[in-house]
Amino acid sequence: MRPPLPVHIGDVIQMRKPHPCGGYQWVVTRVGSDIGIRCLTCGRRLMLPRSRFEKGVKKILGPMSLEGNDGS
């Protein structure tokens, strides 16, 4: 048995299969036994059981960048 995938709120992930809108990239919005994700192409939200989520993830791209936020 493998340990759970280390995923955090705000991480951008790439799924193996595309969303019907054509997007592969999603941002994680909820972490627990279910994982909440939002498509970065169309904005659609999904809730997946952790097991199904982990099977569908191709790679974790890292935390979502906040472009335009220079901290001042």
Q: Can you tag this structure with a few keywords?
A:
1 helix, 72 residues, 10% helix, single chain, 5 strands, mainly beta, five-stranded antiparallel β-sheet, globular, SH3 type barrels
Task: Please characterize this protein's 3D structure.
There is one protein chain. By secondary structure, the protein is mostly beta strands. It has one domain (11-62): SH3 type barrels (Roll). The chain is 10% helix and 40% strand. It is built from one helix and five strands. The protein has one helix at residues 50-56; strands at 11-15, 25-30, 34-39, 45-49, 57-63. The protein has a five-stranded antiparallel beta sheet, with helices on one face. A hairpin with a 5-residue loop joins strand 3 (34-39) and strand 4 (45-49). The mean pLDDT is 88.
What's this entry about, in short?
The protein is mainly β. It is built from 1 helix and 5 strands; from the N terminus they run ββββαβ. The longest helix has 7 residues, at 50-56.
The amount of beta strand, in percent, is 35-45%
Write down the CATH topology.
SH3 type barrels
Distance between the termini: 46 Å
- The whole-number mean of residue pLDDT values reads 88
In DSSP terms (H or I, runs of 4 or more residues), the helix count works out at 1
Q: Could you estimate the helical fraction of the residues in percent?
A: under 10%
Report the CATH C-level class.
Mainly Beta
Strand count, sense and closure of the main sheet? 5 strands, antiparallel
Radius of gyration based on Cα positions:
13 Å
* Secondary structure tally: strands: 5
CATH architecture: Roll
Number of domains: 1
Spatial strand arrangement across the major sheet: 4-3-2-1-5
Series of H and E elements: EEEEHE
Low-pLDDT runs of 5+ residues are none
The secondary-structure class comes to: mainly beta
Globally, the shape reads globular
